[in-house]
Write a structure and sequence with these properties.
Shape: globular
Number of helices: 7
Number of strands: 7
Strand content: 15-25%
Largest sheet: 7 strands, antiparallel
Helix content: 25-40%
Radius of gyration: 15 Å
Amino acid sequence: MARRARRSSGYRHSLKTKVALGEILSTFAAAAARGKNGWTASELDLTGLADIDEVVDALRDVEPDADLALLFVESDDQYLAVLRLDEGEDLRVFGSDSAFVEESRIGQVLLGEIEAPALEIDELTAGSGDDEDGDRPSTDPDADPVGDAELLADLGISAHRLLALCGQEGMLPSDVTAEICQRIGCGDEVEELREA
């Protein structure tokens, strides 16, 4: 994930400030749930949640009858974590960079229990690729993605595409979230949270 300080006005407006390990980190957490009537989105406050089970409970409460719930957590314009909950039970987690665990309490809560690493960013240059324009992205050599990079594959975001977005220089976590949400059909709902 690019280490830039730029923020869109909507992103800056909706950020919550958290204190983590003595540093001020800006965090935005958007939950998108797909139920019988389509997508709904809500901003979650992760302050005070002690572990991943409490995060899952908060995500489940957004739309208890949802067949699919996603949580996008953006931190400090550097890190993105995506959680997926199917039928309120089956949890899958992806993080754009393992450094999120070391630099933030929220990162530790979300990604601290992940054991299996995601595919390496370096593998993007070796794969067949599914970029729409066919161009290889310029990747961030410091990025170390973790977790299940395939968690959005059935929604049209392959592991290769997710890693490419997270590793592309100049892409902020908010940019990655926006592109994913537009692709899967909840872009307007999540964008409204930023502008609220």
